[in-house]
């Protein structure tokens, strides 16, 4: 990602993160994808009513899908309200999909959504990452590094 894209993400009014993903996986490659939504789904995302817990992506017949993403029904929606946990299509180029498909055929690799945000044009976007699973000792190391950083920040604030 370039610096301009980073700035746009920081300015986004909605940022729904998958905090558990960085603990469970090493990120190998990251991409930004569009997502196909219905009218009430985009309204719920703009209200911040979505979750990426236990979410993953898969490729079926040359198309990328996200499974397990929870977008709460829109409060003011009527009979046309959406289903909360349906599978949603992601918009990527054929080249990107083929690259990810080849990578996920290797053992230990998967595709996980890391962030949902609204871009400058008002469209919902999803950051996805090609990930390799962490072993138990890697997770312990990550926790130790996080605790050390916290301890250093406390020490700096005291003085």
SSE arrangement:
Blueprint lengths: L2 H9 L3 E3 L1 H6 E11 L3 H8 L3 E2 L4 E5 L2 E5 L2 E2 L16 E4 L2 H11 L4 E10 L5 E10 L2 H23 L1
Antiparallel strand pairs: 1-8, 2-7, 2-9, 3-6, 4-5, 5-7, 8-9
Report on this structure:
The chain has 159 residues and is α+β, with helices and mostly antiparallel strands. Helices cover 36% and strands 33% of the residues. It is built from 5 helices and 9 strands, in the order H-E-H-E-H-E-E-E-E-E-H-E-E-H. The protein has helices spanning 3-11, 19-24, 39-46, 94-104, 136-158, and strands at residues 15-17, 25-35, 50-51, 56-60, 63-67, 70-71, 88-91, 109-118, 124-133. The strands form 2 sheets. A 7-stranded antiparallel β-sheet has the order 1-8-9-2-7-5-4. Strand 4 and strand 5 form a beta hairpin. The termini are far apart. 23% of the residues are buried.
Based on helices, strands and strand pairing, what is the structural class?
alpha+beta
- Please trace the helix and strand order, writing H or E for each element: HEHEHEEEEEHEEH
Strand proportion, as a percent range, falls in 25-35%
Basic shape: globular
H/I helix tally: 5
Mean pLDDT figure: 84
């Amino acid at each position: 990602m370039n610096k301009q894209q980073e700035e746009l993400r920081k300015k986004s009014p909605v940022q729904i993160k998958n905090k558990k993903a960085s603990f469970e996986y090493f990120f190998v490659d990251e991409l930004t994808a569009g997502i196909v939504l219905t009218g009430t789904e985009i309204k719920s995302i703009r209200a911040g009513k979505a979750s990426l817990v236990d979410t993953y992506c898969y490729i079926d017949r040359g198309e990328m899908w996200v499974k397990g993403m929870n977008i709460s029904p829109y409060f003011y929606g009527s009979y046309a309200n959406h289903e909360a946990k349906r599978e949603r299509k992601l918009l990527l180029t054929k080249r990107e999909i083929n690259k990810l498909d080849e990578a996920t055929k290797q053992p230990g690799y998967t595709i996980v959504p890391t962030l949902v945000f609204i871009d400058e044009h008002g469209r919902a976007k999803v950051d996805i990452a090609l990930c390799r699973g962490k072993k138990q000792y890697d997770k312990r190391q990550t926790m130790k590094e996080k605790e050390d950083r916290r301890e250093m920040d406390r020490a700096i604030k005291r003085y």
